[in-house]
Amino acid sequence: MKVGLSVTIATVAFILLVVVIGEALILTYSHDNYSSSISDDGQLCEITSRGAHCYDVVVTAGSMDSPSAVYIYYDERYGSAHETVSVAVGARELTEESYVKQLVKTLNVRSITNVSIINAEEAAGILSGDGNGIALISLSGALPDTVYNGTSDSPVIRWIESGGRLYWAGNVLGKYIAHDNGSVTEVPNGTSLFLGSECIDSERTESYSRIDNRIGKAYSLISNDTRYSVIASKLPEGTQCLGFGFTDGLRSSSCIVSVGNGTVCIIGGDYSDYQRIDLAQIVASGLSPLTNIIDHRTGTVSGKTVTEITRGGSVYVYIGGDLTVYAELHEAV
Predict the structure, then answer these.
(1) Residue 71 shares a structural domain with residue 177
(2) Using CA atoms, how far apart are residues 125 and 146, in angstroms rounded to an integer?
(3) Considering only CA atoms, which of 95, 139, 126, 105 is closest in space to residue 29?
(4) Could you give the C-alpha distances from 2 to 6, 68, 125, 210, 256, in angstroms and in order?
């Protein structure tokens, strides 16, 4: 065998091994191996871990509480508008179905266990009610015609305005309606129905600069893809929004926007494991347009450790850094 070919095969094998090990860490560690708690006065955080790991404790003001329920929309009968992504040779194909299944597990690791996968009819029932404290995740790039009709009176928009939290990835928000024959139709100026302006496009750009508001680093956000994300400067004047992660100068890799009493969070880019991990971290940590970091403590734990923290609002504890094996949001003390 030629040396060059041998090195190439070894490199590919190593990359695949890293991917497999990473997924095993994220998906198979028992939640019982880890725990965290906050003292009654809100000034101490106790963390326990079976085995040695790094930890982060992030104290914020203005964040949201844990969602009372999380729904992931997925209906194979309905059309979708996300782009097929290429993967490394030998790697698992990243389809919408596989993304949804992996996302449920990634959320579970972060103590979000009240997760349900819903179809178009079930989405219609849920979005006909009050949205306060409820999260809906959509990855298809196109909302079904059971909740979105291309007007400002669409059930999904009324639901967000009532307090719902929409987490969106996969294409331009509001641009496509999905139908049960597998087709999609395009909505002119659909983004304006949700965010008040045409502030999202599909341009591919490079974004290697981390936004200097501490959030990306504090929460170990790793995706730097800004495609389909919000151009904040095009939002209507006075709109509350928070961009974080990485930026191409106009867009941020993730952005949360206030809409009525609710929020819309856009996670930029096409499908990727990095995007999925960031999405789960954002949902679980309660990030909002008003989030402000009060304190961020880091360290290592093996067994049990106690760290002092600044008394604030919400406290998000996670263990494992980029490869999070446990996380939990402790609400306002």
Answers:
(1) yes
(2) 9
(3) 105
(4) 6, 58, 61, 41, 51
Task: Look at the block and give the residue holding tokens 């996302």.
Answer: 103
Provide the domain limits for residue 54: 33-63+293-333
- Asked if 315 and 44 touch (Cβ cutoff 8 Å), the reply is no
Task: Judge if 270 and 155 occupy the same domain.
Answer: yes
**Pair 142, 257 in one domain:** yes
CATH number at residue 72: 3.40.50.880
- Cα-flanking dihedrals φ and ψ of residue 268, to 5°? -70, 165
The answer on 155 and 218 residing in a single domain is yes
* 241 in a structural domain: yes
Question: Would residue 269 count as lying in a domain?
Answer: yes
> Residue 60: which of 308, 256, 296, 254 has the closest Cα?
296
Distances (CA, A) of 34 to 43, 114, 238, 301, 328: 20, 19, 42, 10, 10
**What is the number of domains present in the chain?**
2
What angle is formed at CA 76 by the lines to CA 264 and CA 70, rounded to 5 degrees? 35
Global confidence as pTM: 0.90
Beta bridge partners of 263: 165, 258
> Do 152 and 51 belong to one domain?
no
Both 163 and 224 in a single domain? yes
Distance, CA of 168 to CA of 138 (rounded, Å): 5
Write out pLDDT tens, residues 42-65.
999 999 999 999 999 999 999 999
Listed residue (273, 290, 216, 315) closest to 95, CA to CA: 273
- pLDDT, tens digit (0-9, with 9 covering 90-100), for 198-254: 999 999 988 999 999 999 999 999 999 999 999 999 999 999 999 999 999 999 999
Give 264-291 pLDDT, tens digit per residue: 999 999 999 999 999 999 999 999 999 9
Which among 147, 154, 141 is positioned nearest to 126, based on CA atoms?
147
The CATH number of residue 328's host domain is 2.60.40
Distance CA(121)–CA(41), nearest Å, equals: 46
Model confidence at 5, in pLDDT bands (50, 70, 90)?
very low
